[in-house]
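Example (one chain per record):
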Amino acid sequence: MTKPKIQKQNKARPMLVNMNAPVVQAEVAKVVGVTKQAISAMIQEGKLPDGKTTGEMIAAYCERLRDQAAGRLGDVPGGLDLVQERAALAREQRIAQKMKNDVANGVYAPIGLLSDVLGFASSAVVGHLDQLEGLLRKSCPGIDEEIMTVILRVIANARNEWIRSTCKIVSDKIEAMVDDDEEGDDSDTPVLMDELTP
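Predicted structure:
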């Protein structure tokens, strides 16, 4: 019976690093297991601070690794990290769901639909107001022309003011919505119906 050969393990001497010594990027790279160029690039990109001692640099590198592993830090300096991305996505999903619910409940409607409805309503009102002269002459055949002129002038002024104020309310609301959401498409953007009331 032959004995299995036991390989001798190469016992390297532990690396001793003076943590209080001024930073030497090559030493930090050797300790953390990356190249000197990688450490230099991280410093230039702002991912690592330009520490005063080797210990500070190694501690900063380890802190960065912990933050990346925990999902609190992205690869892009100043960019959104995983937690922020998830929170932003959840917020947008919550807003979209609320809008769908409001549309289903009849609280919101697309601007195009509201414009069409308002146009039809305006046409109907104007059409009825324009028929008042004939109805007044038929209902009150002996009405004085001066009185008829005053009545028609008051009705015309009321009609014109109604159209003007309605247009102003709609345009103000649309401008406010465009200011709030610069990147949205106006044609399909829902409008809160309560916002259109004066």
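Caption: The helical segments are 25-32, 36-44, 54-69, 82-104, 111-130, 132-139, 145-180.
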